[in-house]
Amino acid sequence: MSIHHLMGSHGETVENSSVRFSSHDDVAWLRDRAGVFVFKSRCQKYWLLAGLEADLWDWFVLGHPLDIITERFAAITNTPKESARQGVVRFVRYLVQEEIWVEAS
Question: Is 102 within 8 Å of 21 (Cβ atoms)?
């Protein structure tokens, strides 16, 4: 799975590879010293992304290419590039599963 286009509730757009994602209208986020707080107003739910998850979030919303994100993740976790890529994909799938990001048409 590659990520092409991510769009946050604040209008940020990130170019990457071949699948397009966006967030629901009721999703907003805030970067804090503790990590990234993601809020979903409709269900009054929130998540705190900390550590590597917060780094991944930042890299995507700042527009870093998937291959660079994967290389950084591999270096930080001291894992082979393919394992790192799988970790990045798991992170994106988690965001989709929690309905923070959805595949855009």
Answer: yes
Say which amino acid occupies 38: V
Determine how many CB atoms are found less than 10 A away from the CB of residue 83: 13
pLDDT band at 61 (very low <50, low <70, confident <90, very high): confident
Instruction: Classify residue 31: in a domain, yes or no.
Output: no
What is the chain's length?
105
Taking only the tens place, the pLDDT of each residue in 42-55 is: 888 999 999 999 99
63 CA to centre of own chain: 11
- For 89, the domain range is 5-24+50-103
| Residue 29 within any structural domain of the chain | no
In a domain, 71, yes or no: yes
